[in-house]
Structures are given as structure tokens and as C-alpha cells.
Amino acid sequence: xxxxxxxxxxxxxxxxxxxxxxxxxxxxxxxxxxxxxxxxxxxxxxxxxxxxxxxxxxxxxxxxxxxxxxxxxxxxxxxxxxxxxxxxxxxxxxxxxxxxxxxxxxxxxxxxxxxxxxxxxxxxxxxxxxxxxxxxxxxxxxxxxxxxxxxxxxxxxxxxxxxxxxxxxxxxx
Length: 173
What we know:
By secondary structure, the protein is of the alpha+beta class. The protein has one domain (42-170). It has seven helices and four strands. The strands form two sheets. It has a two-stranded antiparallel sheet. The protein has a two-stranded antiparallel sheet with strand order 3-4. β3 (127-134) and β4 (137-141) form a beta hairpin. The protein is globular, with a radius of gyration of 20 Å. The protein starts with 14 loop residues before the first helix and ends with a helix.
């Protein structure tokens, strides 16, 4: 039973008050954005997006494989590297070594936050299966439509994204 569903308290409480409060709290939990934050909310800026269940970057996909294969390959905990405070999985020892020598080259831009969302001034977690490699950099997107919007003006989107990411990382609005 959750704290707002208690049926008793130190002072005499009407059970209908608790029902109203629990309804309000439940409603707020449904409408508040949990997976993303607006650009001016620097308290929720993370350097790297991780899988919420495993805590692994790129949901366990091998960052190097985005550049060397037709599709990203799933990594393995057998080839794990901690970088930027989170674990990264790779499909081979060789890919782990390549990443360890130049992680900023192979890690997704904006730490894996959605590239078009960042360009628009807000954050969303990028989906490792919706991506684009452009000018030897990996960009992730929240949705296919975000990637299509990015493609319409990728240079402007990248410039806006860089500015917004720098502001978020420095704590500015």
C-alpha cells in the first residue's frame, strides 16, 4: 500500500479526503514527464542515456558496430567497459579496445539524447534502433519522424543541438 493510500493517520482523517488525494497524486504521476525533461531543467541532465532496467549505455548495443556493420550489433557483458560513469557493452574485445581509445568519436552525440529533440530545445531519450551516422558521428532519435525532421535541415539541427546541449551541460537556461 502506498503512502497516499493509508487509511489512518495521527489526526482523524476522512477516508474520502484520502481518496481525493490519492486520485490527485495518481493523476499527477500520469501527466508528469518521467522519461524526459525540458531543456531548462538542468537537474535532470545526464551525460549518457542508459537503459532504465539494466543501466547500460545504448541499451547494450555495441557502439562500434554502428560504424562497421549494416545494423547495430548487441554487445555482451563479457566485453564491458565503464566510461563516463556507465557500462558499455561490445560484441568483441577488438571493438572494446577501439572504443576505449576514442570514446568521444564513437559514443552517440548528446550522450544518446534525441538529436532532433535537442535541436528543438528539449530532451528525450534516443532510441538506439532509430539512428543516423552523419559525418562520422552517431545520432540517436526518439522516433522515426524526429529523424525525418532532422534530415530536412541537419546542419541547422546540429548547430541548435550543440548550443542547447552546451547550455544544458553548463546549467544555463
